[in-house]
Amino acid sequence: MTVYQAAPTPEISAISTANFDFWYGDFHALTDVNLNIAKNKITAFIGPSGCGKSTFLRCMNRMNDLIEGTRIEGSMTLDGADIYAEGVDPVDLRRRVGMIFQQPNPFPKSIYENVAFGPRLQGVTSKSDLDDIVEESLKRANLWKEVSNQLSKDGLALSGGQQQRLCIARVLAVQPDVLLMDEPCSAIDPTSVQKVEDLMAELAPEMTIIIVTHNMQQAARISDYTAFFLQEVAGEPATLIEYGQTDALFTSPMDKRTEDYITGRFG
Amino acid sequence: MRKLFSRQLVEARHEMFSIFEAVDLALHDAVRAYVEDDKKLAAATQEATFQIDARCANLEAVCYNLIATQSPVASDFRLLQTIIYIDFNLQRMCDKVRRIARAAKRKVKNDIEVPVEMVQLIDAEAQGVFRVLGATISALVNNDLSIVLALSDEDEAVHGAYQEFFRVFNRTETMDVADDAQMDDFRRTIMVSRYLDRIASISMECAYRLVFLLTGQRASAADLAEADEGELESMRIPSGEGVILDPAADARYVAELPLEEVGDQLAALIRKAAETTD
Hints:
Helix content of chain B: over 70%
Distance between the termini of chain B: 33 Å
Order of helices and strands of chain A: EEEEHEEHEHHHHEHEHEEHH
Number of strands of chain B: 0
Oligomer: heterodimer
Largest sheet of chain B: none
Number of strands of chain A: 11
Structural class of chain A: alpha/beta
Number of helices of chain B: 11
Number of helices of chain A: 10
């Protein structure tokens, strides 16, 4: 039974799930997840390792489709349309729902080519159009000032924090509606973390952002809403325990399991 | 690290109770000094209040340090907020206790004759204040919201005594006041009744903060006046019971208080704690 504290309603949501279950083959990983992700807000998923938060995140752009034997039950919608409906093109979905991973993963190409890659796939061929997209995306990712005179430099030659922002610029270049971030700051230094967090705050008014993080302070600092997942018994499916406004969840959680987790009493 | 933090929180909570006990005992001394014209006791009480101030300042620093270093959330954060709030109000109460002690000194030094009836009224009012403080401490130690709800009746009794004191004062026409300076001395002396009334009100504010600690909701006196016990109990959320909130351990830090003033529940805990220590 999930506890909700001033959680978003479907009307203001970008992504909504109802009775959502997920399996890796025979393993029932997630059960009965019901939540609405508020549009153009930052939502944090927290919980101990193995509680299904990254799994759930990857369901949102059907990244789990790439793993053989996975299946879902229930529904998940993006702007009211079923993500898992027949005829939905996962590639098109992933353009609308971009993803940033724990380890920065630039292509072994130049900074310019990294950012231009997505638009090119979408059919943008004009050099001036691509130049504009690259500049705009790098500016939005707060990286332009640092790399504007070295766009031909190998993306892998950048620092970890810069690489992560390059990956964000690469996602922004295809103008997604939703940005999924799976522990995006766990492999970068504190200064870079600050830049990524600032960037998230700047992007949020025009983009729905969902972040998985093990850093409680980061979740409390940057998110508008927080969802706490937990697998209570090994081998049993994890589920959503508590979901609501971040300030309420971090000051007055209503479920003891949430209280114990965020105060560090277990997990 | 969590174990250390839990211990630090428990220590801060115990210090809060210990300071509360010190304020309560200092108030007893200040009132006794006033009623019995004991200048020496008044001076000692005044000195004790300065030590309480120092402890309050230290506790406040400890709490802010924990916030800065441990980044507390949930019940840990609510507890620290509660301790800081109560600590601040203990300083306010301590200031009033000091004023009562000063009034007692002034009364003896300037040979101010307060009519016996008025001294008796102050003594009676003080008994009511002791009960408010005892009930507040009992509510905080036992995490008992029902005591918080019942407190307004106790406070009403104190406020009634305060009003009665000034009704009697207004009727008193036998005072022989030589000049304005003597009148000021007299006025400061009778302000003890007002200080007592304020101490009871501040103590109530401390007790109301228990609602925030246990429910996460900020309830005003008006909210609580309309709330019933069942409604309040249903609002409880996890608050560190058994880890941070431990009535049996907390009771040890208020064990010096007169048992008849703290209610049966806390009195039993104090007696049990004493037996365990013996």
